[in-house]
């Protein structure tokens, strides 16, 4: 019997599930790097509150990554430190940054739903249950990203518009940290 087969006999985590979870580790790690890069651009451009929002978001994504990372190992699998490459460093506007965030979060939601669907279909109820935290988190993250983007239409970007949007992003950040948004 090969070493890999012995290992998989000593756990209930299926190889396919482990692969999907490791893919999600990579996605969360990339999210963290992507948001850190956006935070840096915002900071450099003087959008202080947008930068604060994104520095926090980058930290949260790393926490999301680590939660799955530990789960894989605790379930008898092997969590893989992902390669993080192709991170974009420059953006055309503050609005573009927030458009990209919403687009990215929707992709993450789809990936999470795919893992939940898979876990249910193979009767891996431990993983199914573990992933419920991510289902709720994605609902909140999508809502928050949508609210952030809506500020651009509600306030408008002319005159002091961008400054005001940055102030409102700071409030959204603070409310989220306090668990209100
Ligand atoms: Fe990990 O929730 Fe955003 O991407």
UniProtKB/TrEMBL annotation:
GO terms for biological process: intracellular iron ion homeostasis; iron ion transport. It catalyses: 4 Fe(2+) + O2 + 6 H2O = 4 iron(III) oxide-hydroxide + 12 H(+). It is found in: Cytoplasm. It is an enzyme of class 1 (oxidoreductase). GO terms for molecular function: ferric iron binding; ferrous iron binding; identical protein binding; oxidoreductase activity. The keyword Cytoplasm applies. InterPro entries: Ferritin (IPR001519), Ferritin-like (IPR012347), Ferritin-like_diiron (IPR009040), Ferritin-like_SF (IPR009078), Ferritin_DPS_dom (IPR008331), Ferritin_prok (IPR041719). GO terms for cellular component: cytoplasm. Its EC number is 1.16.3.2. Residues 11-156 form the Ferritin-like diiron domain. Keywords: Cytoplasm, Iron, Iron storage, Metal-binding, Oxidoreductase. It comes from the Bacteria. Fe cation binds at residues 28, 61, 64, 105, 138. Belongs to the ferritin family. Prokaryotic subfamily. Iron-storage protein. May alleviate iron toxicity in the presence of oxygen. This is Ferritin.
